[in-house]
Each structure stands twice: as structure tokens, then as C-alpha cells.
Amino acid sequence: MSRSPAASARKSGNGGSPDPRKPPYSVSAFWPVVQDWDAAYSNRAAVPDHAALFDGWARDAAAFRDSCGSRARLDLPYGPGQRHRFDLFLPEGTPKGLILFIHGGYWVSFDKSTSSHLAAGPLAHGWAVAMPSYDLCPAVTIEQIASQTAAAIAAAAREVDGPLILTGHSAGGHLVSLMMCDEGPLAAAERARLARVVSISGLHDLRPLLGTRLNDSLRLTPESAANLSPALLTPLPEVPAVAWCGGGELPEFRRQNLLLAQLWAGFGQAVLALESDGDNHFTVIAPLADPGSALTAVLLGLPA
Description:
Elements: H1 5-12, H2 37-40, H3 43-46, H4 50-68, E1 72-77, E2 85-89, E3 98-102, H5 120-124, E4 128-132, H6 142-157, E5 164-169, H7 171-179, H8 188-193, E6 194-200, H9 215-218, H10 222-227, E7 241-246, H11 251-264, E8 271-276, H12 294-300
Parallel strand pairs: 3-4, 3-5, 5-6, 6-7, 7-8
Antiparallel strand pairs: 1-2, 2-4
Helix pairs in contact: 6-7
């Protein structure tokens, strides 16, 4: 039995016409205008207990190195400088390949010694893990750090056969993303072995940092910021990439995470952008120490 036009009108609430109170569009994304660029990128201010977390990194990393015994080869040189060293952690048996983890610290702080424990997850799956230090700004530029990173990857790759997976946190996420750009400094031999890149809370567009006090140390110019921004460069084809950040991070880091996937899609490059529930900028990397974590699975290309 068909309904009368009047009944249909009552059902729709407006005679079947669109509700004039509802705008004819939907909001797909909204990012507030940044008023304070220092606050927008100040992870330490956003995480009040960051000092305790850093102490925990150092403690856990030292304990992990001690536990590895002969499977930890420490302070291997990749260049002439005091910080041009990497630690190599080897699994039981023949490695399936090599993972490079590049530490963060806004290119101005930290070194390899705070990250050693994060090798535990990949090691348990049979992968070797190398972790380099690099010189810091303002003594050097980010471009020089990128060249050092490429040299560290090459040196570590000579120690372990098989595919290469690159990952890094924050500034390290920027550096590994830059390594998989056509304009980046990674050599052809290492590019040929590149199997996957995972940027964790990475900075993929450096131009916003021009408005921060941090740039007093970074010394970026509009030209260099653009030239060193992976999101603005050309990704290497057919290399799987993942951008991962914490759901509790600052809005700018969540935006930067999406940005890589959005802009590289224009080159036909598939980038998976993921967020881990609740993690802040300093807790987001902790799951790498767990062989059964989702982050370790994503890093290795395993089912989560």
C-alpha cells in the first residue's frame, strides 16, 4: 500500500526537500591556525614527565646492551668524527636482513645510546639492527646529518647481507624518509636493497620550523627547509612506506604524519598513515622493544 504525499512529507520533515538548516557540505578535516609555532612543536612541554621517560630510555638501553653479550658489536666506525659510530645488534643465527634505527632529538640532542633496547622486537624475529649516532646542530647542518646518515647505512649494510629496512623517530623519521627520496643522499647500492621505510612521528615538512626558536640551532632557510622536506620531494618507486605517530601527539605531528601519505600519493606511492591510540611523542616508540607489538609487526611487514 503506497503512502500519501502528506505522509511522506511528514516523514521527511520538510516535504521531502533538504533541511535548509544543514549546510550542503561536510568537514573532512580541520586544523586550527597555529598562533605559536614554538608551542606547536614543543614535545617536551606537551609531555610533563619527559625527563623520567628519558631516564628510562638510558637505563633500559644500557641493560639491553649488557644482556646481548657478544651479539652486540658497539661503536663501529662509519666516518672520521667522534660521533660517527654505530652499534650493531645481531640475532641468533643468520640475520634475515638489516634494520637501521635513527634516533630523534630535533637534530640537536641524544645519540644511539638511548635507543638500544628498541632493537629487541626486530631481533626476536631474526633481524639484525644497527643504530648510529650523528653530529648535532648547530655544529653541523641537517644536510650534513643526512649525508652522515647515508654513510652510516652504507657502513652497516656492509656488515649484514639481505634487505634493508629503515626506521627512525622524530628527527630520525625525517632522516629515513629523506633516504627514500630520489633527491636524497642514499647511495645506489643501498637503494637497491631498500625493502621498507617506517617514519615514526617524523617531521616531513621542515618549513614550519622556520618560525621556531629551534631554528637558531638548525639554521634553516626557506630554500633549505624545502629542499630537505621529504613530503616535497620525489619518493623512490615501489618501496613500501609507513608513517606512524601517536594519537596523543601534538596536532602538528599528527598533521605531518598524514602529510607524507597525502603528498606522496601524487607520485603513485602508497604510504600507510597510522596512529597508535593514546601514545605521546615519547611513548610512541616503546613498542619496538616488544616482539609481539603492532609497531614491530608493521616495521617487519608482518600481519598485525
